Amino acid sequence: MKRVRVGDVLRLKRRPVAVDPTAEYVSIGVRSFGKGIFHYPPTTGAELGKLRFFEIHPAELVVSNIKAWESAIAVSSAADAATIGSNRFLTYEPIDGAIDVRYACYFFLSEAGLPLIQRASPGSADRNRTLAIDRFENLAIPLPGIAEQQRLVARLESALGATRLAAEQSERASRLDRALTDSLVDAIVTGSAEQGWPEVPLGDVATVNPRPARVEGLVAFVPMSAVDQNLGRIASPELRSVSEARSGYRQFRRGDVIFARITPCMQNGKSALADLDGVEYGYGSTEFHVLRPSEGVLARWLHHVVRSRGFRERALGAFTGTAGQQRVPAEFMRSAQIPVPPLAVQRTLVARLDRIVRLGDELRKRREKQSDLAKALHQSILNHTFAPAA
Q1: pLDDT of residue 38
Q2: What b/e string do you get for 222-231 counting C-beta neighbours within 10 Å, with b at 16 or more?
Q3: 85 near 16, Cβ under 8 Å?
Q4: % of the chain surpassing 70 pLDDT
Q5: Each residue's pLDDT tens digit, 54-63
Q6: Is residue 44 a contact partner of residue 35, using CB atoms and an 8 Å limit?
Q7: Which of 132, 136, 260, 386 could form a disulfide with 265 if both were Cys (CB 3.0 to 4.6 A apart)?
Q8: CA torsion, points 384, 68, 374, 38, in degrees to nearest 10?
Q9: First-to-last CA distance in the chain?
């Protein structure tokens, strides 16, 4: 198969946009890892910033010059007509019909083509790895005749469409599994109130953000990232001396419940029972509320209640602050009504809830594995198509 210089078959096409400050524009971005083009929300020309912008037309190769090394490469479609792209995106059209831009895109996303892109993107740090136009256009790539290119593209699109659909279905099923788990948990939590068990303000059965105690020795350190939002538990605490963790962090002790108060962590279920291993106290993000249950409520019951979808939806309605920095106030936590069955009933319900959450997590892991396998097959098909002949 002959090899050709990229610049001999693809032409950089720039169509400058004279930005009107009062007009509305839709600009594009290109996702890394070959995930295609996306559109930003419409905005006025006055809000676009100081970058230069160019028209995007269908059926062109679109390359992010700052993320090409990470496979931010795509082909524009009819859906991208009338959009614009900043000077950070390079758009190429075929010269004299010598190359199918879909073939070029698939080649550069394969393990045969991506290393070439990476070599044409010099720099030692990710943010400095800019694709050099001259280096890109001087790359030599294998190029069969146009009919063979189109045959390969048709075969790839059929196979890759199937793997993409499989991955999307697995991810959709995972979201449905989470919704089902949430619904089952909600049914048990709200059902306890429907059985006639009393509802009381949370602050009557738990201390919200108790005063810190004097602590010495080692403590568990729990940043927000250490809380598993799927299982609602502390997944990877660190051990630190109290002097390292005390300043600027929230103290809690074994048996407390920590509850993320900030968006989007709260909506995602970032809360946990402090099952500390080997230490009595821990410190975590100040974006946690700490709930210390009284003798009348089990910590695990309290955790399931505040982690339930219904409670999180009520907490969402109590948010204060500006967008991106909204938080659940402590006063909401103290006044929120929660069901408190007798302790024996709480133990029975907690056992059911623990089982539901555990089974839901097993389903999630299976779905993730299915999605990962589909994505791996997707890349394997690409790589096999462009592998050099033995």
Answers
A1: 97
A2: beeebbebbb
A3: no
A4: 98
A5: 999 999 999 9
A6: no
A7: 260
A8: -140
A9: 13
Half-sphere exposure (Cβ direction) of 162: Cα atoms closer than 13 Å: 7
Q: Say whether both 229 and 360 belong to one domain.
A: no
101, 117, 143 - which closes a domain: 143
Task: Note down the domain range covering 373.
Answer: 149-197+341-390
pTM for the model stands at 0.67
CA distance 259 to 266: 7
CATH code where residue 262 lies: 3.90.220.20
Q: Tokens for 337? A: 């009504």
Query: Where does residue 18 rank: exposed (0-12), middle (13-18), buried (19+ CB within 10 A)?
Result: exposed
pLDDT at residue 324 greater than cutoff 80: no
Domain count, the chain: 3
Region 11-40: what's the mean pLDDT? Answer: 95
Residues 346 and 336 in one domain: no
pLDDT tens across 151-175, in order?
Answer: 999 999 998 888 888 888 888 888 7
Question: Cβ distance 124 to 98 under 8 Å?
Answer: no
Task: Please tell me the predicted confidence (pLDDT) of residue 390.
Answer: 39
